[in-house]
Design brief:
The complex is a heterodimer of chains A (258) and B (473). Chain A has helices spanning 15-20, 103-109, 182-192, 207-215, 228-239; strands spanning 2-9, 34-38, 58-63, 68-76, 87-88, 92-98, 118-125, 130-145, 150-156, 166-167, 170-171, 179-181, 217-219, 222-223, 226-227, 241-246, 249-254. Chain A is α+β, with helices and mostly antiparallel strands. In chain A, the strands form five sheets. An eight-stranded mixed sheet of chain A has the order 2-3-1-7-8-9-6-4. Chain A has a three-stranded mixed sheet with strand order 5-16-17. Classes of the chains: A alpha+beta (258), B mainly beta (473). Chains A and B meet through strand 1, strand 4, strand 7, strand 8 and strand 13 of A and strand 29 and strand 30 of B.
Chain lengths: 258, 473
């Protein structure tokens, strides 16, 4: 049987969450740094209070197929498969699940369900007992239906944050007519990109991407002050490349100009 | 390596065929004599018209240079060029007029208003080049009707193939350089990638895929009469279609300048220094531009870079299961390690059959040729039994000629399971009226069309599905 499971990390770790949950359903609650709380199976108990934060531990809620209503996870490298659409694309998904005992409602009422919480989606094969993480997103908007006791959340990657990161422009020495390749700009922009986005390193670029970056020569190049998103997007269009995120890694790739 | 998606795993298919041969991103260079500069010229409107015997490739350029000045160093060699990839395996030649290589005086654009549209038309002819192939094959056993059928459908042992190309073809198309170097009147067994026999009414088609050099992959098709049941040499004839540009027409102010192309270069552009079209480059350019009315004279040249983006690829969206898939490469390749006497292994190619369906056991008659193994040189026929789900097992040579019964090991890759990822190359199959799986789409040469996965959407609505967005490779 093929199933999907979603895990969402709560912001911080809440000790009362652990004490409220049935110890048998929490894996190694006393030792591990990851405490899983399975929606619909382990119970927080109504009115559970999540007040004190214990540092160093991660608490996550797990939604397995029993309470999963719908789940969608899209990862595209481009926005249009029929037309040239080089650039950055931000992917996402949506998750809807049952909350039979109102636990998630309790979390929501205490403002513990926020955006930018890490969400992972796993594909499970119960026959081979193999599990594969197929996507890593972050939560966006939560919605809770009190009548039907269902919760839903939209998922996104964190590339859109680049739109809010401003970088300084780069101006090269025009008088000396320095010729720069797109590869130089790639390196420069890589330096502007925070490490939290796991942007692909040069050694991990495939050969065709590397060649494409190096063979494009720019005369009189400059990069104006802009958002990180806009700068990368320019380079993508210039080099006919794509940027997208998959499983938490940010990929820069050239696909033959197609 | 392409991953086969069987029809039974596909539940819905939204297949759209994009109009072919629309060429986008044409790059045209201009040259300013006074400034000693080349400039890229914005290109508007491209079109390509192809009928049975002629084709026309047309694009228009806008002379609004000032706003789009870009310096390009080095004059290089100016030539007309066609996009290389045309349809399937058919390639277009690079055209380079020899009489005026510089071509700086083909068209002098006088002063005038901006936004003048120049129309450039490259027209040509379609022609076919006859090709023949001599196929020498040698059946190993006495043949009856049944074994003849096996030969026709892929179980034959072909000793070698000799391909004859007309000299004319060599001149026009450098795609064949590596091929003609080894193929004309010579034997090219090492270049043969696969050998496939297919039935086709009163005659059958012999097709082979050859590896040109180290990277060009071509397929040619020949038709001939049925094979005899004895060893023989067959001569099979076919033809290759090429589109040859013969004339360039440039229209300005209603007047047309024509250049007849009489000599063809065999040199393809290397794109070593990929000149960027202004439209793509303007965001990165210097804000400097030349403000000099006196220099408003340009010679229009044409960059060898025509289209980095050849749109017009077939696209499709399919919804399929998350289940077992298998690689195309599994078909017909068995690695045999004749242990314990020889651990080096021998590659055996079994052609034209899909023998490795991992989800059920298979018995397969195997024809083995150990001619590449000096120690155990010889041939034999055996039976391979592939248990369900196995990735490694033994089989025995039942009908051997030259050695004692020896266990052989073959290994299979594990079938692909789970979701696809961006960049995976797949061949979706559709269920045919004959009860067999057929590729969703074919190239013109009849080979299965390979699609690249551009997007995946995994979703759950009570069951787990995946939706793949595909574009022709």
């Amino acid at each position: 049987m093929i199933t999907l499971t979603a895990k969402i990390e709560l912001s911080g770790a809440y000790s009362n969450l652990l004490s409220a949950a049935s110890p048998s359903l929490v894996d190694n609650a006393e030792d591990t740094e990851v405490n899983s709380f399975i929606i619909g199976e382990s119970r927080l108990g109504e009115g559970a209070v999540f007040g004190s934060v214990s540092s160093g531990a991660i608490t996550e809620i797990v939604i397995n197929y029993r309470n999963l209503i719908s789940l969608e996870s899209s990862i595209f490298d481009r926005s249009d498969i029929k037309l040239p659409s080089w650039g950055i694309i931000s992917n996402g998904g949506r998750l809807e699940f049952n909350d039979p005992y109102g636990d998630v409602k309790g979390l929501a009422e205490q403002n513990l369900l926020t955006s930018n919480q890490k969400a992972e989606i796993y594909l499970n094969n119960t026959l081979t007992k193999k599990s594969e993480r197929i996507a890593e997103f972050y939560t966006s908007d939560w919605d809770y239906d009190t009548n039907n006791k269902t919760a839903s959340v939209t998922l996104k990657d964190n590339l859109e944050e680049w739109q809010n990161i401003q970088i300084e422009g780069i101006r090269y020495d025009i008088k000396n007519q320095i010729t720069r390749s797109a590869y130089n700009l790639f390196l420069d922009l890589s330096n502007f990109t925070p490490s939290k986005y796991n942007f692909i390193k040069v050694p991990d670029l495939d050969l065709s991407t590397l060649n494409q970056l190096k063979r494009i020569k720019l005369q009189y190049p400059y990069l104006e002050r802009s958002s990180l998103w806009a700068a990368w997007d320019k380079l993508c269009v210039l080099t006919q490349c794509y940027i997208y995120q998959h499983n938490g890694k940010t990929i820069f790739v050239y696909k033959g100009g197609n | 390596m392409s991953i086969i998606i069987p029809s039974k795993n596909i539940y819905s298919m939204d297949r759209s065929i994009v109009a072919k041969n629309i060429i986008d991103g044409v790059s045209v260079q201009g040259y300013t004599p006074n400034l000693q500069k080349n400039i890229d010229v914005p290109v508007y409107e491209t079109s390509q018209i192809i009928d049975e015997n002629n084709y026309t490739f047309q694009f228009s350029i806008n002379r609004d240079f000032k706003k789009h000045f870009v310096g390009v160093s080095g004059l290089g060699s100016y030539c007309f060029s066609f996009i290389r990839d045309y349809v399937g395996s058919v390639s277009l030649p690079t055209i380079q007029p020899s009489k005026d290589k510089n071509m700086s005086r083909i068209l002098s654009l006088g002063k005038g208003e901006n936004n003048e549209i120049y129309s450039v038309t490259l027209s040509g002819i379609k022609r076919t080049i006859p090709i023949s192939a001599d196929v020498y094959y040698k059946p190993d056993v006495d043949m009856d009707a049944q074994t003849l059928g096996e030969i026709l459908y892929g179980d034959a042992k072909v000793e070698y193939v000799t391909i004859n190309l007309p000299t004319e073809a060599i001149v026009v198309e450098n795609t064949y350089n590596s091929m003609t170097a080894t193929a004309v009147g010579q034997t090219i067994p090492n270049n043969i990638h696969t050998l496939v026999f297919e039935e086709d009414k009163d005659y059958f088609t012999f097709r082979f895929d050859a590896l040109y050099g180290s990277y060009i992959y071509e397929a040619l098709t020949y038709s001939g009469e049925a094979l005899a049941d004895v060893q023989t040499t067959l001569t099979m004839n076919g033809e290759r279609v090429e589109y040859i540009a013969t004339k360039v027409s440039i229209t300005l102010y209603g007047e047309t300048l024509e250049l007849v192309l009489s000599d063809f270069s065999t040199k393809f552009p290397t794109n070593a220094n990929n000149l960027l079209s202004v439209e793509r480059n303007e965001l990165m350019q210097s804000s400097n531009y030349i403000e000099d009315e006196d220099n408003d004279w340009y010679d229009v040249l044409f960059s060898p870079t025509i289209s980095q983006y050849s749109n017009g690829k077939e696209t499709a969206t399919i919804k399929c299961s998350i289940s077992n898939y298998y690689d195309e490469e599994k078909n017909g390749v068995i690695f045999i390690a004749p242990t314990p006497y020889d651990t080096s292994g021998v590659e055996v190619y079994l052609d034209g059959t899909n023998i490795f369906y991992i989800n059920e056991p298979l018995t397969y008659d195997l024809y083995i040729d150990f001619t590449t193994n000096s120690e155990y040189a010889g041939k034999g026929q055996g039976t391979a039994v592939i248990p369900k789900g196995s990735t490694e097992t033994y089989f025995y040579i039942n009908d051997y000629e030259w050695f004692e019964e020896i266990s052989r090991i073959y290994t299979l890759d594990e079938p692909r399971f789970g979701t696809f990822k961006q960049g995976d190359e797949v061949i979706p199959m559709v269920y045919g009226a004959d009860g067999q799986d057929h590729p969703m789409s074919l190239y013109k040469d009849g080979t299965p069309k390979v699609f690249q996965v551009l997007g995946t959407k995994v979703f759950y609505d009570g069951a787990v599905w995946q939706e793949l967005s595909l574009q022709e490779v």
